[in-house]
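Hi R.,

Here's the chain you asked about this morning:
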Amino acid sequence: MKQFAPLAVVLALAAQPVVAQDKSEGFNLMEEGARLFFKGIMQEMEPALKELEGMAQDMQPALEDFARNMGPALKDLLAEVEDWSVYEAPEMLPNGDIILRRKQPKTPETPENPDEIEL
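And the predicted structure, written out as tokens:
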């Protein structure tokens, strides 16, 4: 009996009348389907988005305080570093220190003329 179930489904689908649709009607149906799909997603996501909005409002004073206190230090740090791509990701040591390691150690610059030494 289980063998005949897929055959019955195929026959039922094949027996349905085939209706020709012009391209614009098909596009409109696809457009409507996509609109309904995204509407459903937005309805599902609405509670999570409202919760996220509430969290953002709660965090706003702390972020403003962080920017006010750390802004000048971060600005100085950004001015010091020329190219961030030569550094590994920041690493926190067990004692709480944060270090930035170079991907390849910087080689000391050698003068063009070794006889000349700038003092």
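The CA atoms of residues 63 and 69 lie 10 Å apart.

Let me know if you need anything else.
M.
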